[in-house]
Amino acid sequence: MRKPIIAGNWKMYKTPAQAKALVQEIRSGLDQTVLSGREVVLCPPFVDLAVVEEAVRGSGIGLGAQNFYPKEEGAFTGEVSAPMLKELGVTYVIIGHSERRQYFKEDDDFVNQKVLAALKNGLKPILCVGEMWSEREANLTEKRIETQLAGGLKDVSPEVFSALVVAYEPVWAIGTGKNATPGQAQDVHRFIRGWVAVKFGKELAENLRIQYGGSVKAENAASLLTQPDIDGALIGGASLTAGSFLSIIKY
Ligand code: PGA
Predict the structure, then answer these.
(1) Does residue 174 have its Cβ closer than 6 Å to ligand 1?
(2) Which of 36, 42, 7, 38 is nearest to 23 (CA)?
(3) Mind giving me the DSSP string for 201-228?
(4) Which domains does the chain have, with CATH numbers?
(5) Which protein residue has the closest C-alpha to ligand 1 atom 7?
(6) DSSP track, 62-97
(7) Which atom of ligand 1 is nearest to 217's Cα?
(8) CB 6 within 8 A of CB 248
(9) 5-9 and 232-235 beta bridge pairing
(10) Residue having the nearest C-alpha atom to atom 2 of ligand 1
(11) Single pTM value for the model
């Protein structure tokens, strides 16, 4: 059985003080019975990581980062390394998010460097893939996803594959209020699992958790998250307030 993983991607929102307050609110609305059936992860901005780590301690809520630079250390002004994140208590890291691909020109090669560096350093990658609206219209969704998977997972060995989470996030659904229908999302999730089965074997594919992301809200969470190949959600906007994030967790 795959345990659903619900992750909040806070993007560039929340100062440290706001982050602390939000975690306290989330914690007070969660009990252990909910957490025994789901994994909950918060991915705040770098500057909030230490505060959030302290605030989630003992709650069972996990900590993720939104990015890092795939070198151990060095003269890379402004960047943050995987060992630095590890020491702060970070477990997961989002890689290949469409905003990084779009605004920071990160390509599949660079995404792959990050996946390999994360795995080497004991961080679990949340690898994001997703097509643009024009690609969906041109019937190129599967081709796009396949290219991103093949590129991002190049040289990943089956021995470490189980640390990975994949997030399917159609670019046209991110922050737009326009989510994929449960059927559209399920189709792509099934395609991803099938692709992984061919490349990494059936057992790893069966155990892989594939999150859906893109305008997930309290109102649509249940219909998406009950699809057979959808194993959780990566949530942007709706993770910024405790009420909506909690209702999604409790879908
Ligand atoms: P959204 O963002 O929930 O605001 O659409 C999802 C994401 O970017 O991970």
Answers:
(1) yes
(2) 42
(3) -HHHHHH-EEEEESS--HHHHHHHHTST
(4) 5-249 (3.20.20.70)
(5) 236
(6) EEEES--BSSSSSS-TT--BHHHHHHTT--EEEES-
(7) 3
(8) yes
(9) parallel
(10) 236
(11) 0.98
**CA–CA distance, 179 with 213 (Å, rounded to integer):** 8
- H helix or E strand, kind and range, residue 40: strand 39-43
In one letter, which amino acid is 34? Answer: V
> Burial of 226 by CB count in 10 Å (0-12 exposed, 13-18 middle, 19+ buried)?
exposed
Q: Which atom of ligand 1 is nearest to the CA of 179?
A: 5
Cα 60 to ligand 1 centre (Å): 23
- The catalytic residue positions are 97, 169
pLDDT 10s digits, 10-47? 999 999 999 999 999 999 999 888 888 999 999 999 99
Ligand 1 mutation target, pool 97, 216, 219, most atoms within 8 A of CB:
216
Single-letter residue type at 205: A
- 125-180 pLDDT, tens digit each: 999 999 999 999 999 999 999 999 999 999 999 999 999 999 999 999 999 988 89
